[in-house]
Design brief:
- This protein has 210 residues and is of the alpha+beta class.
- It is 30% helix and 40% strand.
- The chain contains 5 helices and 10 strands.
- The protein has helices at 33-46, 79-88, 108-127, 147-155, 181-191, and strands at residues 4-8, 12-18, 21-29, 52-59, 65-69, 94-101, 129-142, 160-166, 170-176, 197-209.
- Strands 1, 7, 8, 9 and 10 form a 5-stranded antiparallel beta sheet that branches. A 5-stranded antiparallel beta sheet has the order 2-3-6-4-5, with helices on both faces.
- A hairpin with a 5-residue loop joins strand 4 (52-59) and strand 5 (65-69).
- Helix 2 packs across helix 3.
- The chain starts with a strand and ends with a strand.
């Protein structure tokens, strides 16, 4: 698993108009090629009357799966510039479909490359990009009398609170970088005067909008 990487926040859509042609960028996260192809097929079904539904996607930790499709536009003028935007932004597990409704004015090869690149870039901006960082979930069980102090201290610290479980005792879950586990344990032990029961949980990705 990668320590950290960038991908899109989630499904999103953005439309721009260039020389009377409508370019609609549809963006989604896809962790497999099958998910990417299913998303592309769904957009094509929704926009069956469009002149073109061009697509690009990058999938996998090492970007091993990279595909671009011009869907009837001149070769290399749509899918490739779309893919180049994904590469430039270093986005993984991301699929983009740009739907074009032709407005009657031809753009030429250079114009198409710029249009599909711009549509993809603005579609990504509208959808949002996140950093996914691999973190350890550290759990601390405390008596309810400690909750106010512990929660306030966590929220004002550089640690990220994940969740609070209200059981017989309170269990507080915090995202902690692997290298900072010992420091967190010492900090929490001091904070609770040794009354906190601290344990390691699972590893998962923390998403931060950038």
């Amino acid at each position: 698993m990668l320590h950290k990487y960038y991908t899109v926040k989630g499904p999103g859509e953005n439309e721009i108009v260039i020389e009377r042609s409508r370019f609609i960028a549809h963006v989604a996260r896809a962790e497999t090629e099958e998910e990417a192809q299913a998303f592309i097929a769904d957009i094509k079904k929704q926009h069956w009357s469009a002149n073109h539904n061009c697509s690009a996607y990058m999938i996998g930790e090492n970007n091993l799966i990279q595909k671009a499709n011009d869907d009837g536009e001149p070769s290399g003028t749509a899918g490739v510039p779309m893919l180049e935007v994904l590469k430039k932004r270093d986005l993984k597990d991301t699929v983009v479909v740009v739907t074009r409704y032709f407005g009657g004015i031809k753009l030429g090869a250079g114009g198409l490359i710029r249009a599909y690149g711009k549509s993809t870039s603005e579609g990504l901006n509208a959808t949002g990009v996140v950093e996914r960082k691999l973190m350890r979930i550290m759990k601390t069980k405390i008596d309810y009398t400690w909750l106010g102090k512990v929660e306030n201290e966590i929220r004002s610290s550089h640690y990220q609170l994940k969740e609070i479980h209200y059981l017989d005792a309170v269990e507080v879950e915090v995202y902690v970088e692997e290298a900072a586990k010992e420091g967190f344990t010492s900090w929490m032990t001091e904070l609770t005067n040794g009354q906190g029961e601290i344990s390691e949980g699972e590893v998962e990705y923390l998403e931060t909008l950038i």
